[in-house]
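Run: sequence + tryptophan -> complex structure.
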Amino acid sequence: MKQKRVLSGVQPTGALHLGNWLGAIKNWVDLQHQHDTFFCVVDLHAITVPQDVKTLSENTLSTAAMYIACGIDPKKSSIFIQSHISAHCELCWILNCLTPINWMERMIQFKEKALKQGDNVSIGLFDYPVLMAADILLYQPDLVPVGEDQKQHLELARNIAQQRINSRFGKDKENLLKIPDALIMKQGAKVMSLNDGRNKMSKSDPNANSRITLLDPPDLILKKIKKAKTDQFIGLEFNNPDRPEADNLLNIYSILSNKSKEASYEECKEMGWGMFKPLLAELVIDSLKPIQSQYKELMDDKEGLGNIIKSGNEKANEISSLTLQKIKDAIGLINKL
Ligand code: ADP
Ligand code: TRP
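>> structure
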């Protein structure tokens, strides 16, 4: 039976952190065994807000290396860079011309991000969801693993594909584009900030102590966990609405130790913070060690890394150019003469 196709991506906007790993990339690693998987570094999305030139190029390469260090196997998955595949921008333009502005005005993430940008809001930021629709629809995937915050963008991609492409341009009920399903990551894998258990851990949090990046050295991990917000209670527990920090740290402990929630609770329910924090720090350090050493190997062999990306790009190009041509034909853009 043909494997279902999966496509997802992360923006190269900073060092990946525990949340990106446990909430996104770890799921991709599991998916690659039984699916036809494509993972993209979405650098064109990153430039929808201002980026430092040198940092962006470094982050793009390091994000690709981190995918592999976390377990994405280049023999099973195609790893590619969004800006290397010109079909993304081409399809984005076509979709722009077919997407009503009032669909876009409903996008919650745009409103949130635009507020942060003040006077400096680009058209690209407004158009971000259409580019994401192009990213997705070009590959005709069955499933798109995304976090809860991306659900609305995926719904937009589905609506554009169905209402603006398939039903307008598909002859004889032909589906020009596949309507993909969102694969919303398990709630349990949402990692919260170390400073505030009610906010998610994020690359864009100005306080670097709020997150553990996958490249943090052991002493920094210990320091960050020791500094993490706590409360006056003794004993770790889940699901106490007054103790979001306890829930978050115990959740990280449970995921990284591969112990069930029940077993983790039993083990830690009487521990004070002073005992639990070093235990958690050691576990995080040990869990990141293999990732960090593989990352270093990859970054020390830029040629090897470049070859992996080249071969991912080739596969991505093959598939996306077919879809783009199909759409161009369907809407009346003539082929080269
Ligand atoms: P960030 O907010 O850190 O910039 P992104 O928005 O780029 O992260 O998200 C990249 C991927 O990582 C998405 O699939 C998102 O759902 C996932 N992700 C981001 N932060 C977390 C978190 N704290 N917990 C779980 N998953 C997360
Ligand atoms: N917007 C997504 C995020 O911030 C990243 C993204 C861009 C993406 N294009 C995509 C995710 C296509 C899945 C599929 O997480």
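>> summary
The domain at 216-297 is CATH 1.10.240.10 (Tyrosyl-Transfer RNA Synthetase). The pocket of tryptophan (ligand 2) is lined by residues 7-9, 11, 42, 45, 132, 135-136, 144, 146, 150 (CB under 6 Å).
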